[in-house]
């Protein structure tokens, strides 16, 4: 074991006194100072500009000292401040403009949400009515039949569209009139849902021959076996009818808990109409009569 003083490494001076001396010798300059270097400053702090020869060598006799401005010291603090203040002002203006546009968009979106769903259709309808009214007024001033002029301007396509819309709005279910009409309507509804299998029909037609078209005196009608698809279709249709009937409830004509103040059905209707129009005015009088406190 060697002692603490014995070491295999050479002694090295770790002090940085020379670096500190060099750092202390460096001059300090004001970065906002706007001037050029003098000859004394260049001689003392900056190395001279050495011009090299064409053969790549350098000559100490051709050393030339040139006085030029230092770009790091030619900065004006007022100009820099104005430049960055103008940029900051532009950013503020852009932020205010974006905030204003965002507020306008949010308010317009809120107004659109408060409008009814059919607002656009109502707007187009109102504009069309206004244009139609102005055109009619103009035609009356000119002494022209507006309806005739309007019909002349319509095309066959416009008339076709109008007729189709009118056909769709017709009352296709006039209600119950008699059992025969209701049965026919149900038959038409069911036959529209059917999709016949033409291949099976042609095969059975070729197999049965004339028996495929039975007459009034043919007792073989209905004796054939029904297909599985036909049975499934019938079962599905019956289930749909059962589900539809389960949701249907007949409207009660009489409420058992209601007060009976009528003698027949006609008098009941009359009392209901009178209650609808004058019930709010006669409510207190009826209560006083029931309690026996009427004057």
In this structure, how is the largest beta sheet organized? 2 strands, antiparallel
Mean pLDDT: 76
- Side by side, the strands of the main sheet go 1-2
Derived from helix and strand composition plus strand pairing, the structural class reads mainly alpha
- Helices and strands, in order, run as HHEEHHHHHHHH
Number of strands: 2
Euclidean distance between termini CA atoms: 131 Å
Shape: extended
Beta-sheet strand percentage?
Answer: under 5%
Q: From the alpha-carbon coordinates, what is the Rg to the nearest angstrom?
A: 53 Å
Poorly predicted segments: 31-37, 42-54, 57-64
Range of helix content: 55-70%
Summed up, the helix count is: 10
Outline the structure in words.
The protein is mainly alpha-helical. Among the domains are: 17-75, no CATH class; 76-114; 120-170, no CATH class. Helices cover 58% and strands 4% of the residues. It is built from ten helices and two strands, in the order H-H-E-E-H-H-H-H-H-H-H-H. The chain has helices spanning 17-25, 39-45, 77-114, 119-142, 146-153, 156-168, 179-193, 198-208, 228-246, 265-291, and strands at residues 49-52, 58-64. It has a two-stranded antiparallel sheet. The longest helix is centred in the N-terminal third of the chain and has 38 residues, at 77-114. The chain is extended.
